[in-house]
Design a protein that fits this description.
Number of strands: 12
Order of helices and strands: EHEEHEHEEEHEHHEEEHHE
Number of helices: 8
Length: 290
Amino acid sequence: MNIVKPKRIIAINDIVSFGRASLANIIPVMSAMGHQVCPVPTAVLSAHTGGLGKPAVVSLTDELPQTLSHWKKLNLNFDCVFSGYLADAKQGIFVREFMEEYKKQGTFIAVDPAMADHGKLYSGISPETIDVMKSLTFIADIIFPNLTEACQLSNTDYSENKTDDELKNILEKLCLYGSKMTVMTGIPSKLKNYVSVMSYSRENNKFIRYETPMLGGSYPGTGDIFAAVCTASLLLGKSLSESVCHSMNFISECIKYTLNFDEPSNYGVMFEPNIKLLYDFTNNIKCEEI
């Protein structure tokens, strides 16, 4: 039996005290897939920003470089740097320098450029933060923008009705800037009542669209789960297609489970009882190369 050694991952993101999102999602799902997750919090929020009122926020900008500097002194080796939400542009500068250093050592870089959705920037995202987030995607091996973020990063006008050719152009632009692979979520589906994801690999110039049934409403935090599961799968030696399918399958099962209970959708999906599914790499998502 071939056993792939679990990896050591730096997870740079915010901590949300209520509402399943950010590190509260990322740490357990990556850990369940066998990896060691070393969190670097960018901020602490009383709740996520997806419909739970204005949260109390403590920025950890000053602590961030101290943590990263300490790890450098310890000469720690990491297999992956996985970054998400950044509280401000200054944090992005620290993270970029850290990524650049580890990139030279062959560390896998994954970036979830969490800054916008549904055509709008998140509260507090400045033009400077957008610019520094772009610079992180230049370093990354893989990025996970939703459609809104992909348009921001590629300087493309946002529209919910992009054609396949327009979507492919955005994906090519993003990989041309630096990333080897891009997975774009929240794109228009060809099928009624389905959700759609599209990936592009610069290495083999392959576009793949994935479709899965729309099971419920909008759940904050599913993007964090998607990027975390996909990255963790890639680190276990799975292909991009297998990793995307695994992520979509897992989220679908979590939504199915959550629908059994009378919980507001903005509380997030109940992924905890479904953690065991992360060991199953069955791929049953509809997909096509385009």
